[in-house]
Amino acid sequence: MDLKRMRYFCTIAEQGSISKAAKVLNIAQPPLGKRLHELEEEIGSPLFIRTTKQMVLTEAGRFLYRKSSEILSQVNSVTRQAVDIASQKKRTVRIGVSYLYLRYFNTVFLELYRKNPDWDPNLLVSESTHLEELVMNKALDMAMIQTPGDIRSFYVREFEPIKLVAVVSTELAENLPDRTLTFADLSGFPLVMLHRMGGEGTYEVLLNRLYEEVKDVNVIMKVSEPRLVIEMFRDGLAGAALMPESEVGESKHFRAFKIEQKEKLFRPAIITLQSEKDSFLPGE
Q1: What's domain 90-159+267-284's superfamily in CATH?
Q2: Domain boundaries, the chain
């Protein structure tokens, strides 16, 4: 088994289909399918279960993907190090950062940057769903996002969950008790909800909890970016927002109340493809 076929196999596993993998690898589908067939003949076992929607790894396929990812990650790391030593140039590292955790990941990024003086970082700020897709398509090397629902294709470095807080404009905060709040305490309050543009996330979980526990749910707007919500409060918006504590800070224009919660909703993580892990997060 050569490295090229190993890389082809891993890309098919990560993309879930030969057509998507062919686009990422920039090759035609027939030769890619032929390489996979040759690999399955060499192994002596099917590596995928073919369904109408996607290709799912068999037990042998999962084992081969895990081991191949480790080998490719080490090869990529060695290659990059050799190139860096030969050229003595910084290497471009493409990093995505989620709107949801800009303040939180600022510290995390700076720590990584200090540990990797050879990096020439290129940062993109967007939504977690979009950044996942860019990592999958190898348009980003890593992403700092909400932990994905499906982590099969990624190496995931998870961080401690971030507490949920209710950010309430100062004039409305006077009507609340000085204690940890329940969702019921926010009944009738004009609510600003964080909401990603694509896919489901914390918005749906929080909304379900609100309808379970709150008599009068009054959502006045949905916003994708926490810092925009904070700016609205500073500019005089009267309302409340449910947000990760890390993104709030202090202001005379609002108060942040802790909220009783069952689920750990805000779960930041760094993701890379399994095959790239040793290139960007060695020693994890």
Answers
A1: Periplasmic binding protein-like II (3.40.190.10)
A2: 1-88, 90-159+267-284, 164-258
> Which residues fall within 8 angstroms of residue 79, CB to CB, at 6 or more apart?
none
* Distance (Å, whole) CA 257 – CA 176: 9
Is there a contact between 280 and 272 (Cβ–Cβ < 8 Å)? yes
- Neighbouring C-alpha atoms within 13 Å toward the C-beta of 49: 7
What's the whole-model pTM score? 0.71
Strand 240-244 and strand 164-169: the pairing is antiparallel
Tens place of pLDDT for every residue, the chain, 284 residues? 788 889 999 999 989 899 999 999 999 999 999 999 999 999 899 999 988 788 989 999 999 998 898 888 888 888 877 777 676 667 889 999 999 999 999 999 999 999 888 888 999 999 888 999 999 988 999 999 999 888 888 999 999 999 999 999 999 999 898 899 999 999 999 999 998 766 667 888 888 888 988 889 999 999 988 999 999 999 999 999 999 999 998 889 999 999 988 788 899 999 999 888 777 776 55
Here the tokens at position 76 are: 């990529």
Question: Is the domain covering 1-88 a CATH 1.20.1050.40 domain?
Answer: no
Which among 106, 224, 239 is positioned nearest to 168, based on CA atoms? 239
